[in-house]
Specification:
six-stranded parallel beta sheet; binds zinc ion; TIM Barrel; 8 strands; two-stranded parallel ribbon; 400 residues
Length: 400
C-alpha cells in the first residue's frame, strides 16, 4: 500500500514536471514571436521612414533639375549672343582686310605710276634734245628741199591716182565680205564694263593649253578675248571658246611678219584665211582684230598697216593692241609672269593685258589663277573686247 502511494506521488510529480516543462516551452515560444513581431514592426517603421526620406530627396532633385534646365537655357542664349557677336566681329575684320588689300593695291599702283612718270620725263628730255638737233639739221636742208618741191608734187599726184584705185579695190572686197555676212551671225557684242576694268587677252592659240586656260577662267568666272591663229588640229577649241561665252578675235593665220606685211594683198590673204575659217567652224563673225607683233614696231610696214586699218574699219571691225603684259612673249617663269602682269596692269584703269595660250606657254597657264585672284582683290571688273570698247592702240591711249 505504501509502495503504491509512493508510485502515485512519483507519477504526480512527473506529470507536474511535464506540465511545467510544456508551459515553459509555450511561454518561451510566445515571447519569441512577440519579440520577432516587434522587430518586424520596427523594421517596417524604419523602411517607411527611409521611403519618405527618398521621396523628399526626389522632390528636391526635381527642383534642382528644374533650376539646372533654367540655367542651361540662359547659358544657351548667352552662347548664341556670343556667337552673333563673334560673327559680327569676323565680318568687321574681313571688311577691314578687304579695305587694307585695296589700299595696298592702290599704293602699289601709285608707286608704279610714279616710276613710269619719271621714265617718261627722261624720255621727253631725250626727245627734246633730238628735236633741237633735228631743227639745226633741217635749217641746212631747207635749200635742197626747195629744189625737190617740183619733183615731189608730181610724185604725190601719181600716188593719189594709185591710192584712189586702191581705195575702190578695198571697198569692193569689203563689200563682198559684208554681203556674205548673214545678219544673225555677227559676234555677240559685250557692252563696255564700267569702273576699273581689265581686258584679259590670249594670242597665238588655240593649242593643247587652251582647254586648261578655259577651265581656269571658268573657275574664276572670268570672260576673256582670244585672238586666234589658224590651227585646224584644235578645231573644237574655237567652238569651246565661243560656247563658254568668251570673245573670239582674229590674229593671223601664219604669224610670219615678212610675208604678212610684204603687201596689203598678202595681209588680206592671211586675214581671210583665219577669218573665214573661224566663221566656218563657229558660225560667228569676229569683230575684233590684233596685228601680229602689234600695230607699230620694227617688223611693221606702216603703208600696209594703214591700208589694213582702213579695210577693218570698212567692215566694222576694231583692232586692239595692249598696254599690259605678263612677259610671256619671251621665256618667263610662272612667278615672273605673275609679277610682270601685276606690275603692268595695276597702274591702269582700263588695262588690256596681253598673254599667250600657244604651245609651250605652260608658265602662263600656271600663273593665271594668281593673276586673276590678285586683280579681283584689287577691285577690277573683267571685260571682253568689242568695237564698243575704247580701243588701245600703240602710240595713243597707252595710259588709258
Ligand atoms: Zn602673236
Amino acid at each position: 500500500m505504501r509502495k503504491r502511494k509512493r508510485m502515485y506521488r512519483i507519477l504526480l510529480m512527473s506529470m507536474t514536471a511535464v506540465f511545467l516543462a510544456v508551459c515553459g516551452m509555450v511561454l518561451n515560444t510566445w515571447l519569441y514571436w512577440n519579440n520577432q513581431k516587434k522587430l518586424q514592426e520596427e523594421q517596417m517603421e524604419k523602411q517607411s521612414g527611409s521611403i519618405r526620406g527618398l521621396a523628399a530627396d526626389i522632390a528636391s532633385l526635381e527642383v534642382l533639375l528644374e533650376s539646372a534646365e533654367d540655367e542651361s537655357a540662359a547659358l544657351a542664349s548667352q552662347m548664341d549672343w556670343e556667337q552673333r557677336l563673334q560673327a559680327e566681329l569676323d565680318k568687321q575684320a574681313e571688311d577691314a582686310l578687304k579695305l587694307l588689300l585695296e589700299a595696298s593695291c592702290d599704293m602699289e599702283s601709285l608707286q608704279l605710276k610714279n616710276e613710269q612718270e619719271l621714265l617718261r620725263i627722261k624720255q621727253l628730255q631725250r626727245e627734246l634734245e633730238r628735236k633741237q638737233y633735228e631743227a639745226s639739221v633741217a635749217a641746212s636742208a631747207e635749200a635742197s628741199r626747195q629744189e625737190s618741191i617740183a619733183a615731189s608734187a608730181e610724185a604725190s599726184r601719181q600716188e593719189s591716182i594709185a591710192a584712189s584705185a586702191e581705195a575702190s579695190r578695198q571697198e569692193s572686197i569689203a563689200a563682198s565680205i559684208e554681203a556674205a555676212r548673214p545678219e544673225s551671225s555677227a559676234a555677240v557684242v559685250t557692252p563696255p564694263v564700267s569702273g576699273k576694268t581689265v581686258y584679259i587677252t590670249f594670242d597665238d592659240g588655240p593649242s593643247y593649253l587652251t582647254e586648261q586656260v578655259l577651265d581656269i577662267l571658268d573657275e574664276y568666272g572670268v570672260k576673256a578675248t582670244f585672238f586666234v591663229t589658224y590651227q585646224p588640229q584644235y578645231e573644237n577649241m574655237y567652238r569651246e571658246i565661243v560656247k563658254r561665252g568668251h570673245t573670239i578675235g582674229i590674229h593671223t593665220a601664219s604669224h610670219v611678219y615678212k610675208t604678212i606685211y610684204a603687201s596689203f594683198d598678202n595681209w588680206l590673204a592671211d586675214f581671210r584665211k583665219v577669218y573665214d575659217y573661224v566663221y566656218h567652224v563657229t558660225g560667228v563673225y569676229p569683230m575684233v582684230y590684233r596685228f601680229p607683233g602689234g600695230s607699230t614696231g620694227p617688223h611693221c610696214n606702216s603703208t600696209v598697216i594703214n591700208q589694213a586699218i582702213a579695210f577693218l574699219k570698212s567692215i566694222g571691225m576694231e583692232y586692239f593692241d595692249w598696254n599690259a603684259v605678263n612677259g610671256d612673249g619671251g621665256t618667263v617663269t610662272a612667278q615672273q609672269s605673275y609679277e610682270e602682269a601685276i606690275k603692268t596692269t595695276l597702274p591702269r584703269k582700263h588695262p588690256v593685258l596681253l598673254m599667250h595660250d600657244a604651245a609651250g606657254k605652260e608658265t602662263t597657264a600656271a600663273s593665271l589663277p594668281g593673276i586673276l585672284k590678285k586683280l579681283k582683290e584689287c577691285g577690277y571688273n573683267f571685260g571682253t573686247l568689242s568695237p564698243q570698247v575704247p580701243p588701245i592702240h600703240q602710240g595713243s591711249q597707252w595710259d588709258y
